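My main concern about presentation is that the manuscript never shows what a single data entry looks like. The format is easy to grasp once an entry is in front of the reader. For illustration, here is how one protein appears when written out as sequence plus structure tokens:
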Amino acid sequence: MEGEMSMDGDGRINKEAIGQTRKLIGQLSQLIDLLTPLSQSMAECVSRAFEGRNQEINGRQKQREDVCNGEASSTSNHCLNGTNFRNTPRILLALEEINNHGVGGEPLDVPRPASSPPNMGQSETTMDFRNWLQISYSASSSSLSDKQHFPSFLRTVPANHFQKLVLNHLIRHFGWTWIGLLSTDDQREIDVQELKTEVQKTGGCADFLEKFNARYSKIKFAKIAEIVKESTVNVIIVHSDEVQAKPLLEMFYVQNATGKVFIFSASFDIALGLFPIETWKLLNGSLALIPSTGEMPGFLEFLHSLNPTLHQDDSFVKIFWEKAFNCKWPEFQTIQTGLKKENISLCSGQEALDTRDLELFELNLLSYTYHAYLAVFTFAYAVTNLLTCEYNKGPFLNRSCANWSSIEPWHVLHYVKNVHFYTEMADEIFFDANGDIMVKYDIINIQVFPEGAYKLVRIGRIFRTAFQNIVLKVENESAILWNEKYTQIPQSVCSKQCPVGHRKNIKEGKPVCCYDCLACPKGEVANETDSNDCLKCAEYNWSNERQDKCIPKVIEFLSFEDVLGASLASTAIILAFFTVIIMLVFIKHHETPVVKANNRNLSYVNLLSLTLCFLCSLLFIGCPTKTTCMFRQIVFGIIFSISVSSILAKTITVVIAFSATKPNSKLKNWIGSRIPNSIIIICSMGQVMICITWLEISPPFPEMNTQSANEMIIFECNEGQTAFFYCLLGYMGCLATVCFIVAFLARNLPDIFNEAKYITFSMLVFVSVWLSFIPAYLSTRGKYMVAVEIFAICCSSAGILICIFFSKCYIILLRPDRNSREKIMGRANFNNSK
């Protein structure tokens, strides 16, 4: 079909199809009530956009007013914004900009720029555009995404409300969490408030948010400059157009508020001619967002074809010519000629433009030119799709197509809304439900050199994916030239980064970015820098020394491999060995007077119980098990009770024996083995009953104790109800106390054989050891608690062994001459205190 537009397999534009589309557009005279004449070619339209860019030289504001006044029928907000870069003439009305226009009698809440006449009436600025197809190349107001008020409005630039996400992602990329915000006191103020909220959501904060307007007095600008100067932030986001920001930036220079990195939103048009050289140098190292640009086939050739002799009535070409070749036109008053420099020659029009450096054209900054180019192609694709609609495959009622003889505006609007194609740079072009194009910005680095020359370097691109994720691609971060104050990426933080093992503690009355770093408590870790909280380790884990990782706790118990455990075990075995030797000595010399006088049977019972006392301490060493936990205290308590009971029986026996020697003593009938055996059995049974009750009600059991010591797990025996343990000790203490009292009362026995004195000393040692044991036991944990009890068992047993039996072994082995009945009884030496 003639006029059919084809596309390459990858969806890119086919140049032949473009030519055919141009012919078809020429046939659309029916759309004359909607669209301006189609006589301008696309290249001419785009060239106009470029020509507008050359108004950056001094006097730009006056030229802007002339252009805007000359375009009285145009509703371009680029004129109102004072940005000549956007002064592209209307292309099919689809490229018209909307600013301060009302819908349905209600004024649209889009702020009027400072360059708008203050007396502009509502009747002059309120129009109904609901039935007009509009494809904007620079209107970025967020309000225009409201399809209820602007159903036919589309645009090829991102809306302002996306910038909060983009700017927040940009400062997060460089690690800037402490920023300042500057905004004009119009709708951009709302955008900046939303940006501040977005920054706070991701852990950042703003030291200040200041509003300004070009109409402010110098005093107000000086106050803002002072705030910026005193602030510790090194990064400031400026959401304003360049005209509004100009007096504020100039005041920054006056107040010496330098050394800051500015980030300019897409509203700011980077123009050297608008600023004095001092202010311009202030922006060195700053970053700026501009709507993403791309390649425009044939555009460079068109630029090279520019010539003032072919465009004699076009003042923009002559202005550009003067700037490009540093010359002046005779009888043509421009800003350039107004400089009246002696070294400027006359322009002839024969200069070769293709010999000039391509950077003169700043092709990487033709953002709005490129989006005007996209708007033209969008309309061309839509018209092509409309005209190539196949019969019974149309999008309208009954699958019909638009009638060529009666094309309605809503026909074209439908196709424009649903257009979908790829550019030469493989950029996907389509509109979402709000009429917005895919969010995509270029990141520009402003580089100003000492001599005043400057360079605008594109360092990356930031865009939003179809999955609503923001992606930042920095192409060459090393190419970024920062402010002369910095040799590397500037730091802008209120507080230094908290290292691992520490958490942030927000300073009272300060933003969340201002904090102190506190070390995590023991048992808690922070494995990331700038952690808000420390994480508590699991029950069986503990923090390492750096407190950045949880490690398994050391399981502690008194083992035989441990030095302390091995020492105590060796001591207990050695003492048991000596006790056995003493018992063998007594058995061997059992017929000697010393052994007989000490009641052989009670001595054997005592020595055997002491041996078992030493050996029972081995039950406390080693990994606790159910069996050892259940019986170690029971065995210890019963054996010790037998030992103390046998000593008590011996004490009573000695007292009875010496008292029975008196004339007419009735105690002679009590002499014999019946009394001591009964004492041992009765006294021991009391302890046995306590132990049985303990095992029946609350028996001891092994336990992993994670509470007593934080850094380790104590594998110990839980005694169940500790009251039984102290009853066991208390019962032994009672027996020892009774024994001590009886022995003390019998202290006046014959000196040569004063058994009661030995028993008194042994019980004194026994009671002293166990009284000392209780506080020591309660003040220790883990294996040391067990060691204290073993030490008490060994000491008390050794005290009894030494005090009672060593003197007798001395007589038996070393002084056999004293081992006789006469020496032992020694009536002549009997010391009766009475």
Notes: Confidence is low (pLDDT under 50) at residues 1-128, 335-341, 827-834. The longest strand covers residues 454-464.
